[in-house]
From TrEMBL:
Lineage: Eukaryota, Sar, Stramenopiles, Oomycota, Peronosporomycetes
Signal peptide: none
Keywords from the named record: Carboxypeptidase, Glycoprotein, Hydrolase, Membrane, Protease, Signal, Transmembrane, Transmembrane helix
PANTHER family on file: SERINE CARBOXYPEPTIDASE CTSA-4.1, SERINE PROTEASE FAMILY S10 SERINE CARBOXYPEPTIDASE
Organism: Phytophthora nicotianae (Potato buckeye rot agent)
E.C. no: 3.4.16.-
Gene Ontology terms for molecular function: serine-type carboxypeptidase activity
Membrane-spanning residues: 56-74
Glycosyltransferase listed as a keyword: no
InterPro entries: AB_hydrolase_fold, Peptidase_S10, Ser_caboxypep_his_AS, Ser_caboxypep_ser_AS
One Pfam family here: Peptidase_S10
EC top class named in words: hydrolase
Identification of the protein by name: Carboxypeptidase
GO term, biological process aspect, one: proteolysis
Family: Belongs to the peptidase S10 family.
């Protein structure tokens, strides 16, 4: 099955400015949680082919990218007050049985923001206040990658305050990233999750993504001016290795040019963090075969397959180099490199996102058993609570194949120069990787970080690779750091570190936000 690939040459420069689409809903969550009644449950729609699972075959056919995720963070000075819901009536903070569909006790808000740089694009977001000090803690914007995947999956299965259970009840996550930060989970680009807009205006590369994220933040911070002066962090996972550096770089440059637009809100960019990301494919794909020799003693390839992959590495590298100069070569690079250097692992019977786990499903997502989240996010009572525009948004799917296909020319491009720019500007950077992941493995991530030609390269590469010991005396991984750059290999984790090692992820990200040593 193939999907259309859009041109990446479209310009959005003539889009006119416009106001927000309605107003978000504010509510106070209750401590626990029966989610929906049995009678209110809707049937679960089929997963789209962009999920980390389904996208595996799609990647080979169309060159659509890996599952990724991203996050942003900012600091703020006052907690939230009453806001208008999407229908225009005022709804105050409240708690009680009418809002028991979501667990926890912190304020949260859902809604749409109309992008002022687009004709009719509306981004859906779910914002949750910090459990600790919302008046001063950072604000986190989490963006799941794919490209084309919804951040609501991460909220409800990885690093959000509430996890959906198989019976559609919810359970509080004590290791949610809103423990010491105000967090936004955002559905983007247009067409992902609950976000909507004209299909002719779908995005096709990081320049589009970065600009749209910037304008979303401008409108969000105008609506929440008490957040505007906070430290702001961008974090992400997987394709966040593209999203995060591009968005942060755009913010950095826009801040420098703010004198040209005095109405723009200054965003206090402090750092970025990327987990198991795809950032510099030319370097990372040279380390695909390294996972055949893993610390888990999992047999993935025989000697013949290893030799074939090694012979394919220079061919892959040359195609990726050509892609940087000529975009028309990028799909060829994607198809060859994925097929030759990732494809063989799919014959191993292991989950490519976590080699510790067996998986023989053609759709790898079925090995994660997330179907209940799909069902939950399409339940009428939940859609109503979240204020979803069911007449304009599509039924929720984890990933959208058409949106993802539009990035086929983008995946093999490098975002390393954006990271270099950020580091040399003093922005803090954390790159971390679960060491049981094949898709964006820790060896390749460490390699591109050490190859990065920034001002502190020599000192960083000379720094010791030391144990990452948590507050509970757990030897959780290995860390190398110098000044504003840190790389952490996380033990016993696959592609999604917040899900596999929640307490380690929680401690790691909070140290990063607070600029503490690892």
């Amino acid at each position: 099955m193939s999907y259309p690939i859009k041109s990446i040459l479209r310009s959005d420069s003539e889009c006119e400015s416009s106001s927000l689409f309605g107003s978000p809903k504010m509510r106070r969550t209750s401590e626990l949680t029966p989610l929906v009644t049995e009678g209110a449950r809707s049937s679960s729609p089929a997963l789209r082919s962009h999920s980390p699972a389904t996208r595996i075959s799609l990647l080979v056919v169309t060159g659509v990218a890996l599952l990724l995720t991203l996050t942003f963070v900012v600091r703020q000075d006052s907690s939230l007050s009453s806001l208008k819901n999407l229908k225009g009536t005022t709804r105050n903070n409240f708690e009680g049985p009418q809002d028991e569909f979501f667990c926890g006790i912190t304020n949260h808000e859902t809604g749409y923001i109309k992008l002022p740089n687009k004709d009719d694009d509306h981004y859906f977001y779910w914002f949750v206040e910090s459990r600790s000090d919302p008046q001063s803690d950072p604000l986190v914007l989490w963006l799941t990658g794919g490209p084309g995947c919804s951040s609501m999956m991460a909220l409800l299965a990885e690093n959000g305050p509430c996890h959906v259970q198989p019976d559609l009840s919810t359970k509080t996550n004590p290791y949610s990233w809103n423990g010491h930060a105000n967090v936004i989970w955002l559905d983007q680009p247009t067409g992902v999750g609950y976000s909507y807009g004209p299909t002719v205006d779908y995005d096709s590369g990081e320049l589009n993504v970065a600009e749209n994220i910037y304008w979303f933040l401008q409108e969000f911070l105008k609506k929440h001016p008490d957040l505007a002066d906070r430290e702001f962090f961008v974090t992400g996972e997987s394709y966040g290795g593209h999203y995060v550096p591009a968005a942060a770089s755009h913010i950095l440059k826009a801040n420098m040019l703010r004198h040209l637009n005095p109405d723009a809100v200054h965003i206090n960019l402090a750092g970025i963090a990327v987990g198991n990301g795809l950032t510099d494919p030319a370097v990372q794909y040279q380390h695909s075969v390294d996972m055949a020799f893993n610390s888990y003693n999992v047999s993935l390839l025989d000697e013949q397959a290893i030799e074939v992959m090694r012979k394919a590495q220079p061919v892959c590298h040359e195609l990726i180099v050509q892609c940087q100069k000529e975009r028309s070569k990028c799909v060829d690079a994607l198809e060859f490199c994925f097929g030759a250097l990732e494809g063989p692992y799919y014959q191993s019977g292991r989950n490519p996102y976590d080699i510790r786990e067996p998986c023989t499903e053609e759709n790898v997502m079925k090995c994660f058993h997330f179907e209940h989240i799909d069902e939950y996010l399409n339940t009428p009572s939940v859609l109503d609570k979240l204020g979803v525009d069911v007449h304009k948004s599509k039924p929720w799917r984890e990933c959208d194949a058409i949106v993802g296909a539009g990035f086929a020319f983008d995946e093999m491009l490098s975002s390393a120069e954006d990271v270099k720019l950020l580091l040399d500007a003093g922005v803090r950077v954390l790159i971390y990787a679960g060491d049981a992941d094949l898709m964006c493995n820790w060896v390749g991530n460490q390699a591109w970080v050490m190859a990065l030609d920034w001002s502190g390269k020599a000192e960083f590469n000379y720094a010791p690779n030391r144990p990452f010991i948590t507050s509970e005396a757990q030897d959780a991984g290995r860390v190398r750091s110098f000044e504003n750059l840190a790389f952490i290999r996380v033990f016993n984790s696959g592609h999604m570190v917040p899900m596999d090692q929640p307490s380690v992820s929680f401690e790691m990200i909070n140290k990063f936000f607070q600029n503490e040593d690892f």
